[in-house]
Amino acid sequence: MTNQKKIAVVTGSNRGLGYAIARKLSQIGIHVVLTSRNQTDGLAVKEQLFSEGLDVNYHTLDVTSDLNVAEFVQWLREAYGRVDILVNNAGINPTTKPEESSLLTVQLETMRSTFDTNVLALLRISQALIPLMKVHNYGRIVNVSTEMASLAAINNDYYPIAPSYRLSKLGVNGLTALLAKELLGGNILVNAYSPGWMKTDMGGENAPFTADQGAETAVYLATLPDGGAQGQFFAEMRQFGGPINLQW
Description:
Layout: E1 7-10, H1 16-27, E2 31-36, H2 39-51, E3 56-60, H3 66-79, E4 85-88, H4 108-134, E5 139-144, H5 163-182, E6 188-193, H6 211-214, H7 216-222, E7 233-234, H8 237-240
Parallel strand pairs: 1-2, 1-4, 2-3, 4-5, 5-6, 6-7
Helix pairs in contact: 3-4, 4-5
């Protein structure tokens, strides 16, 4: 049955938004490969989704490790021979650190580690999996960003300065636009979106929306038809009742 289904990889899918995206994709008939750095947590999620009758698999993945990504890609080649969907969800947000309230106090090491996880790791896994998408000239890449990374809105938004997080997500947006430009004319579509403020470990309990709500736009972009959006930045659909573009 798996050979007849789309194959999706969701990074950081052992909890929060990644889990919600993986679950929703499985529920619409897509075979999802769950990934996480912590194997125990990942296998527990796999068993949970299995118990719901969903078609998922699991493999450990540290997107910051060249060796681990290479091992993961080799496993994918042997297990499936292709990948159809990649949701780049794994990321970190160090905004709770006091120095993150200002560019004048932010620690460069915090900036480096955030960029490594949120930008360079995203590029690493995209470079690794796009060749598997080219096998059948089909791919959908969804990069999780934030409206905090909109340069057009940055002067007037109410969010904290959060330099490491904001600048890393600006990197995600730039990578999305450039990758989409490089892949233009093919059937591999690359887009970014903001899931908004959600009740997750990162967002906290005061957030107004759930991870399931935040996952809606990811599923929309992961299942775009041929000729769909390319190189665009989307807002969370629940806020507008449909797919709406954000300004870069």
